[in-house]
Amino acid sequence: MKWYAFFSQSGSEILEVSNRLGIKPDKVFTNKKSKDGINQELLNNFDIEFINHNDLDDVFSQFRIYDDIITLHGYLRIIPDFIALCYNIYNGHPGWITKYPELKGKDPQKKAWSLKHTTLGSVIHKVTPEVDDGEVLKERTITLTEPFDTNTVIKELHKVSIDLWVEFLTEKVKEQKIVEEIEKTFPETTRELRNLQKEEYKLFCKKQYDYGTGNISVGLDLEKRENRTASLSNLIFRCNDKVQRLLNLVVVNKREAQNEPVMDAFDDLSLYSKIAKIVEKGYWGK
Predict the structure, then answer these.
(1) In this predicted structure, what is the pLDDT of residue 169?
(2) Angle 50-55-58 (CA atoms, 0-180°, nearest 5)?
(3) Could you tell me which residues are beta bridge partners of residue 70?
(4) Sign of CA dihedral 104, 98, 20, 22
(5) Are 265 and 246 in contact (CB under 8 A)?
(6) Each residue's pLDDT tens digit, 214-261
(7) Is residue 82 located within the same domain as residue 69?
(8) Which phi and psi angles does 83 have, rounded to 5°?
């Protein structure tokens, strides 16, 4: 796993997080036009690349889709849809958006202050094509005693954000050590699992090409909670059909399939479980 960090302002958050972790990003990227305003210690001690946001496709082509993580620290540009969907990108947002969705977007600290919020929050969320709309992975809140100004809000939420990033990245490093140990201990098993995941993605694309989205959404608007429940029920029936087929062939009659191979049923079950998660998160058909 490699860690790549992006920023558009001073980059001081990256420096503080790195100092707390004792680990530097493998590379830092900024879309700033010059070195003006960048934290001097960051400039002197980190590998920084100045990029044009319009060339982001080329920048991301050097990253590994499954292994590397990308963190955004005040990167003030929208990540293109394809990149957001394909890579492990995480954004820190100094607004309690799980409680107050109106804090999504620019200047959440100032919005919170103008709305007279006394309980403030910061989150780390997965980056998706929609602004600040990805799954929130970590959040933390603080309560301030009035009176306070916007500078106080910004300062206190900055501290919270640093704590969140340190906690989040510590967990990622621990996860990676486990992955590396398992890959070393079971090289053939883990290699085959990766290959199967790639093949499963191709299978999904082929089926999606043939069927479209209506077979899962059953013609319903999945923005509505009750319709997503109906779609999930549809998937449960499909899974049950495959399970009953496997039970009949493998457990009860112990014979070879005369039509669809047994392994195909396992393939379908694996795909249905992932489709269910996509439906539940509201991404199906988008």
Answers:
(1) 96
(2) 100
(3) 4, 89
(4) negative
(5) yes
(6) 889 888 888 889 999 999 999 999 999 999 989 988 887 776 766 678
(7) yes
(8) -65, -45
Same domain (yes/no): 215, 102: no
pLDDT digits (tens, 9 = 90+) for 198-216: 899 899 999 899 989 888 9
Continuous H helices in the chain: 12-21, 40-45, 56-60, 81-86, 108-114, 150-185, 187-211, 214-217, 225-246, 262-280
pTM over 0.85: no
Residue 1 pLDDT more than 90? no
Q: Are the C-beta atoms of residues 17 and 169 closer than 8 Å to each other? A: yes
Phi, psi of 230 (to 5 degrees): -65, -40
What is d(CA 258, CA 113) in angstroms, rounded to the nearest whole number? 68
Is residue 285 a part of any domain in this protein?
A: no
Domain assignment of residue 110, given as a range: 3-185
Of 125, 157, 154, whose CA–CA distance to 141 is shortest?
157
Closest C-alpha among 133, 128, 140 to residue 168: 140
